[in-house]
Amino acid sequence: MKKFIPVFFAVATAPWVTYAADVANPMFGTDTQNSIALYVGQGTGPGTLFKLVDPFLWEFEPMTNLMLQYSQPVQVFRLPSRINLNLVQNLGYGHDRGLSFTAVGISWDIVLVHWRGFYLGLGVGPYMRDTRDRYVASRLVFGERVFIGKNITNRWRAEFFTQHFSNGDFTELNRGFNFTGLAISYSF
């Protein structure tokens, strides 16, 4: 912990880091108020929230997650953010065929830091699924996301993301779903 504190302050005060409160929302183009995005993710196995940030825990499995997202810019504690309406389709195939579900949800994504067209952020939100399954015994799940984005042009962005869906241990059965993938968004 003693080594972490000086490293944190060195990165946090570096002159090349631009904090989101200082500039326009990097998830949207100049003078745009809407965005639509397509997320495509590969299943990285059931398990804990730690799979979001530790690739050594990923266990690729036969599951593909597709998410269509509509967003509008907002601010959360003066940080550039977006509020999202999400339509999710999880496709399990092979031995995971019974893990397919459709869900709808809202989420909020916050950009913590951005620099030279890149941005790093976190997201969270509730989702309602159409089924229960052997991974999560409830229809209500929460989605947490970590993402790194890049502004390609004024209107187009690409993001690498990891996402976790679980019910926060509201039920005894809560193995969770984890995904990693790419997204492309267009702001208008």
Keyword list:
9 strands, 1 helix, Porin, eight-stranded antiparallel β-barrel, mainly beta, 188 residues
Helix and strand layout, with pairings?
Elements: H1 4-12, E1 18-19, E2 35-43, E3 63-76, E4 79-92, E5 101-115, E6 118-129, E7 140-151, E8 156-166, E9 177-187
Antiparallel strand pairs: 1-5, 2-3, 2-9, 3-4, 4-5, 5-6, 6-7, 7-8, 8-9
Q: Helix count? A: 1
Please give the alpha-carbon distance between the first and last residues: 44 Å
Radius of gyration: 17 Å
**CATH C-level class:** Mainly Beta
CATH fold topology: Porin
Q: What oligomeric arrangement do these chains adopt?
A: single chain
Tell me the β content: over 45%
Biggest sheet features: 8 strands, antiparallel, barrel
> Per CATH, which architecture?
Beta Barrel
The poorly predicted ranges are: 7-22
> What is the residue-averaged pLDDT?
88
Work out the helicity level. under 10%
Q: Can you list the strand order of the major beta sheet?
A: 2-3-4-5-6-7-8-9
Number of strands: 9
| Secondary-structure element pattern, one letter each | HEEEEEEEEE
Describe the structure.
- This protein is mostly beta strands.
- It is 5% helix and 53% strand.
- It has an 8-stranded antiparallel β-barrel with strand order 2-3-4-5-6-7-8-9.
- It has one domain: Porin.
